Amino acid sequence: YEMFSRAQTERSLTRMELYGVMQEDSHQEFPLRRVSRGFGGPRETQSLGYISHSKKIKEKERPQKLNDALLDALSKYESGRLAGEHDGPPLQDIRLYEVTWQFDDPAKSIADPPDQQKLIYEVEQP
To answer: Which residues neighbour 120 within 8 Å (Cβ) at sequence distance 6 or greater?
Structure first.
């Protein structure tokens, strides 16, 4: 199997992560996967990574595709919040980061804050 054909020697993880920016405090942000299981899954992170980095998407089309994807995620978050599916706070923005964790410490996990964050794209609540 392809999955088992290579040994994992790197002690880090890099992935795309959606963060919500709270309405009450624009300096407070949090990963959306912490409040809703609907965010942060492999399918979502892979598709956001594809939109962000794929050479198959033209550079001039990338901002619109990212904008659409993040507005869709923001709408999904708000719909879930209003329906009582999660107890996350109202958001003013949603941000897409490329985040990296270094796993030098065996006790470290993605529940810990990432070691690096690179802002890829951001949208505001319409």
So the answer is: 16, 52, 66, 96, 97, 98
pLDDT digits (tens, 9 = 90+) for 45-94: 889 999 999 999 999 999 999 999 999 999 999 999 999 999 999 999 99
Please check whether residue 88 is in contact with residue 39, taking contact to mean a CB–CB distance below 8 angstroms. no
Nearest to 29 by CA among 85, 110, 113: 113
C-alpha 67/C-alpha 57 separation (Å) is 14
Specify which residues 22 forms β-bridges with. 91
Own/partner long-range contacts of 43-48 (Cβ < 8 Å, ≥24 apart): 44/18, 44/73, 45/15, 45/16, 45/17, 48/16, 48/18, 48/96
- State the Cα–Cα distance between residues 18 and 43, nearest whole angstrom: 13
Question: Does residue 93 contact residue 124 with C-beta atoms inside 8 Å?
Answer: yes
For residue 11, what are its two tokens?
């002690």
Write the CA distances from 84 to 22, 39, 77, 81, integer angstroms. Answer: 17, 16, 11, 5
Provide the token pair at 39: 């965010």
